[in-house]
Structures are given as C-alpha cells and as structure tokens.
Amino acid sequence: MDNEKLPAVVTCVLDLEDDKRLLSRIDCYLMPLLCITYGLQYSDKTSLASGVVFGLRADAHLVGQQYAWLSTLFYLGYMLAELPMSFALQKFPLGRFLSITCIGWGCLVMCLAACNNFTQLAVVRFLLGAFESAITPGFLMLVASWYKRSEMTSRSLCWMVMTTVFSSFFGLAIYALAKHAQDSGGLAAWRVINLFLGACTILHGFVLLFLLGTPDEVRWLSEEQKQAARTRIASNGNGDGGQRAWNWNQVQECLVDPQIWLFLIIATIPSGSLATFGPLVYVSFGFTNLETILYALPNSAMNLVWFLLVALAIQKFPATRFPLMTFGVLPPFIGLLSIGLLPESTDKWVKWGLYNMTSTFTVPTFLAWTLIPLNIAGRTKKTVISSSTFVSYCVGQMIGTQVFRAADAPRYIKGLTVISVVFGVQIVVTIVWKAYYNLENVRRDKAQIAASISDAENDKINRDAGATDKTDLENRSFRYIC
User: Fold this and answer.
1) What is the CATH number of the domain that holds 89?
2) What is the CA radius of gyration of the chain?
3) How much is the pLDDT for 209?
4) Domain limits for position 195
5) Distance between terminal CA atoms of the chain?
6) SS3 26
7) What is the pTM assigned to this prediction?
8) For the CA atoms of 385, 386, 392, 394, what is the dihedral angle to 10 degrees?
9) Mind telling me which residue stretches traverse the membrane in this protein (predicted)?
C-alpha cells in the first residue's frame, strides 16, 4: 500500500459552535445535490414502467417476456459495471466522476425516446444500468467522507427518500405530460416522458460538476474549513473516503468477514421488480392507464411518512435500527401474500389497499445499505463490500423481474407470491445480523476491559486506526452500530 497517500492522524479539536456552523454549511450544499440526483436516478430508472402504460409496448412491438427483459438488461448492465465503477470511484475524484456519469445517463434516457424496437431499447437500457451503477455506492462514500457516524443514517435516508418524493412529483408531471401528449395526438406520451426526464438529468449533471465532491475536492469550503471537515469525522475510525491505493489484504479480509455474506443475502431481495411491474399490477386491479399514476400516489405518500418516522426514530433511538428493519418488511409480506391468495373477484379497492401495504418495503433495504459507511472500515474493503452488495442487488432484481411471467398477466399472482416469501426470508436474516453485531461488540468490550484500556485511550486508538486505513477487523477498538 502506498503510505504516502495516507493522511496524518488528525488531533485538532473543533469548537462545538464552529462544528455546528460547519455542519450546517455542509448540509446546505451537499444534501440538495445528493437528494436531487438520487431522485432523478429513480425517476429515470422507472421511466420504463411509466412508458409501458402509455404505449411503449405497442410502439416498440414488444412481445412475450421482452418487457421483463428490458428491466433485466438494465440490472445486467448495472451488475457488470459495478466492479469497474467502484474501482474508478476509488481512483478518480469522486465528485467529478459521479457528475460525468449523471450526464451520461441523462443522455441515455433521452435516447430511449428515439428507440423503435426491442433491440434498440435493450442496448440503451443495458448502458443506462451501467452508468447508474456508480451513484449509490458513490453516495455512500460521500456520506462517509463528510459525516460523523451519528449523522450518517439520517443524511443517507434523506437522499434515499427522494425515490418517494420524486416518484410523487414526477408522477404528477408525467401525468400532465402524458395527458397533454394523448390529447394533442403528437409525439407519443412515453417518448415525451423520457425526453423530459433526460433533459432534467443532464442539466443537473452540469450543476454537480461545479459543486459535488469530498472535502478535498469542493470549492465552497476554505482550506481551514476543509481541515475542520476532516477533523470532525476522525472519530469514526473508518477513514475519510478520499482516494487511496488498492489494498489486496483488505480484499482477502472481505471473504472471511461474515458481514459481506449478510449484505449479499439482503441485497438479493428482488424488491425492485415491484417498481417495474407496479403500474401493470394497478392496471390488473381494473384502473385505467392514467388512473394508475394517480392511485399510486398514496403509496408514495405513505412511503415518505414511513421514511421520515424511521429517520427520526433512529436519530433519537439508535438501537431501533434493526427492529425497524424487521418491522418494515412485515406489511409488504402480509399484503402481497394476501393478494396472491384472494380470489380474482375481490373488489379492486381491497386489492389496492393491500398493495399499498408495500409502501414500507424500500426502507429496510436502504437501512441495510447505510450500514456500509457505518460499519465497514478500510477504503478498499468498503469498496469491495459496496460493489459486491450492489452486484448481488442486481442479481436479485434480474431474478425478480423474471418471476413476473407474461403468461401470468395481468394478475401476476406467482410473482407477487414469490416476492412475499422472499420478504419472509429477509426478516430472519435481519434478526441474525443484529445478533452478530451484538456478540462482536460484547467480545470487544470484554477485551478492552481485560487489557485495562480506558474509553479515552480506546477512542484515540480508533481515530489513529481510521486515519491509517485499518479495517474494522484489524481495529479492535472499532464498535459496530446496531
């Protein structure tokens, strides 16, 4: 490892008021950028689902499983690009690299509007997945480079909740655009949707070029403020998120760390297929194409409320993280299983109500992702676990889209039932995960007491280990957040 690239151990102390002012400045600049970018990413990702109810399937002459394959190919591109993208995130300036990928995927979304057949759509969807694969792991690295561990979850959930906010906002915008396109008889509604979303993304990408980055990269902090920003996260014990040399020892450690297997299992939960096939499920209840957009808004609103409640609960009571991860899976598990068991003659509003129970399903997955910057130390190890997690996520989504078979349309009972069963597995894994963290923390507490190390000494060891790029397994003073 190239030790010349490692920072000196930070020992200066920040005044409490100065720290608050600096945190406020960081939030004011950074959080809007992360929130808007992530919201646009989700809106672009679901443009296929919006388009299919406005004529994409007929205009592109899609048959059989071709629609499902368009979603699968997105995640295939995402999966194949994840490892090289994660490597690039470690080697190149984080802010500039993410900005370029944002502009790239915006161009690809606009290209969707020009597609006329399955082959063209397949190529663009594959490339779109590849470009978007850098965003979530890149954002988790940004959070780790700016915030204390006590601040990470609330900030991460803040930009993750934009999947809900933007699905509501753009849902209304798409409704207006689609209705106008249908009434005017001009360009097909699904093409207008993609042109609109792509243009918004490209414009935002150029804003990111000037404002997004780590403390060492941004222009909106003075040199003194940059040093203060590095100082305030030193106690995390898991590094500053900056550029580091690749460490193969940390790669090997990943293979023997139980955490990676827990991350991989949770990541394969194919919940993303609900976003792809959700509009078609609403249509199966008996709603029209335009009604599917309007009647999906309450689901988004409930998801937003749940996000906010979870963020507030974890901020005030950190020990509620894993119980909330478990509870968040129960309603969708019950709702989807009930839809699968109910007769076809069941009133559409009953099915609509049961499907709205899925509004909490995204939060447990996002909470699991926030554990990467919280509980993984070592720059290379964090990169490997992050990229592996999102590769598994892609595998899960590809499988999930294929369990929704064209032969099962329009109700997709088999697909909904499979997803509900997998949610049940997620509950068990979450319980095991918390037990592992508790046991490991108890072991480390006992070792600290046996070695007669004070809390102050332990904190200094933890700071030094983080500054010198030690992993969470190498640094026995590190404690897991659970």
Assistant:
1) 1.20.1250.20
2) 23
3) 93
4) 15-234+246-467
5) 31
6) helix
7) 0.76
8) -160
9) 67-85, 97-119, 125-147, 159-178, 190-212, 260-281, 293-312, 324-342, 354-372, 384-404, 416-436
Helix, strand, coil: what percent of the chain each, to 5?
75, 0, 25
Q: Are 406 and 282 in contact (CB under 8 A)?
A: no
Give 373's pLDDT tier (boundaries 50, 70, 90).
confident
Nearest by Cα to 346 from 285, 265, 424: 285
Closest by alpha carbon to 46, among 138, 163, 126, 189?
163
Amino acid, single-letter form, for residue 212:
L
- The neighbour count for residue 424, using CB atoms within 10 Å, is 12
How many Cβ atoms are within 10 Å of 302's Cβ, its own excluded? Answer: 17
435, two tokens:
């037990």
pLDDT tens-digit readout, 153-176: 888 888 888 877 777 777 677 777
30 is a domain residue: yes
Show the tokens assigned to 133. Answer: 């694969």
Q: Could you give the CA distance from residue 356 to residue 360 in angstroms, rounded to a whole number?
A: 9
> Using CB atoms within 10 A of its CB, is residue 404 exposed (0-12), middle (13-18) or buried (19+)?
buried
Could you tell me the two tokens for 137? Answer: 């792991």
The SS3 call for residue 152 is: helix
Residue 352 lies in a domain: yes
Say if CB 276 and CB 329 are below 8 A apart. no
Asked whether residue 478 is assigned to any structural domain, the reply reads no
**What CA–CA distance (Å, rounded) separates 365 from 135?**
16
Dist. CA 148–CA 231, nearest whole Å: 10
Among 420, 430, 395, 168, residue whose Cα is nearest residue 304: 168
Q: Say how many domains are in the chain.
A: 1
Candidates 319, 306, 403, 415; CA nearest to 364 is: 306
Q: How many CA atoms lie within 13 A of 436 on its CB side?
A: 14
Whether residue 441 lies inside any domain: the answer is yes
